[in-house]
Amino acid sequence: xxxxxxxxxxxxxxxxxxxxxxxxxxxxxxxxxxxxxxxxxxxxxxxxxxxxxxxxxxxxxxxxxxxxxxxxxxxxxxxxxxxxxxxxxxxxxxxxxxxxxxxxxxxxxxxxxxxxxxxxxxxxxxxxxxxxxxxxxxxxxxxxxxxxxxxxxxxxxxxxxxxxxxxxxxxxxxxxxxxxxxxxxxxxxxxxxxxxxxxxxxxxxxxxxxxxxxxxxxxxxxxxxxxxxxxxxxxxxxxxxxxxxxxxxxxxxxxxxxxxxxxxxxxxxxxxxxxxxxxxxxxxxxxxxxxxxxxxxxxxxxxxxxxxxxxxxxxxxxxxxxxxxxxxxxxxxxxxxxxxxxxxxxxxxxxxxxxxxxxxxxxxxxxxxxxxxxxxxxxxxxxxxxxxxxxxxxxxxxxxxxxxxxxxxxxxxxxxxxxxxxxxxxxxxxxxxxx
Length: 435
Ligand SMILES: Cc1ncc(COP(=O)(O)O)c(C=O)c1O
Prior knowledge:
Elements: H1 2-10, E1 34-38, E2 41-44, E3 49-52, H2 67-79, H3 89-100, E4 106-110, H4 113-128, E5 132-136, H5 143-146, E6 177-179, H6 185-194, E7 199-204, H7 216-227, E8 230-234, H8 246-251, E9 257-260, E10 271-275, H9 277-280, H10 296-312, H11 314-335, E11 341-343, E12 348-352, H12 358-374, E13 377-378, E14 382-384, H13 391-413, H14 417-420
Helix pairs in contact: 2-10, 3-10, 6-7, 11-13, 12-13
Bound molecules: pyridoxal-5'-phosphate.
């Protein structure tokens, strides 16, 4: 927290990613600055060891300091990382990606997820000659996305954070970015009709931690075709956690384009925009260009991560491991007679607390994060998995959950939740529509 005070003097907002703010965890108790990580664990600057159940906010998929990825990166550093001409790795990775991801016939690279979304939206607008983008869920920080709040309401409230002011976003973008609710085909159809002939793209997370309603995504794809709009799946957090064909393979719906980042390169900065040839090819005529998008470290890290994910069958492992984790955490809750449940798809489970009251849920969430952190389990009230998590993490977490659920039950029964909370109450729900 002393470092955080120092940071706030120098860095507007204190840090670069909202999800890393202390207020997103149990502020004052959770770790704030990491010194190092290895496998499933991180160590903070005070020397405390934690299992990182947020997996580097989803950026770590194989585990911290994975030897195969890091060895490949170290070897690449010895050969050079950014040249004044291109690297063959760019083509090698594109070949690997087009063999792996169903919708991928052509590929562009970026350094992060928000950039990949912005590039995809630019390509879709350029390819269709239309301006309006319909979106569902979170897609980064760019003008095209935050423009949704220029209309005066709180369009981003249910998709990103409530109350975001589109400060610095040009007024001229008003009406170019329009939200739609997840799971409601009729609502999407009406939104498309309202903007008939103007919609360039629909960008959405196909799913997060719950399976989509039957036929929903196929219905979205059909509506897109009928309206001549490009369907973009945002697979930045989901991606290869679902399998080698990514979330689109899992749901059995192939979009026109997709964006990837955090699950592809085990923490090294890298993003990708992939898509069908006819949709991607017009990008050759658009000015979409950056020095660092083809740096050899990102390319090597991504190529090695994808090959290792396939070789180790990591997604299959994560599905099995996540199911075990759900069983163990739920058994811990049952043993102490507490009504919390770890629910959702096993690869990204959430703790569901037994209350309908928003304020009580905030208290339970904060107390849960606080007490799990004290027992060496860092994260939100959810679990992002990576391939380095194993039996030791399962045992430690089940034991911690048992004690923490007992405390939450006692605190609720005795009406003492507020008293038990040492951290600041969570005040920034990073709410997402697509759960
Ligand atoms: C679905 C989705 N889209 C976009 C982003 C933005 O990615 P980045 O933080 O790499 O810019 C994220 C990051 O959490 C995400 O989960």
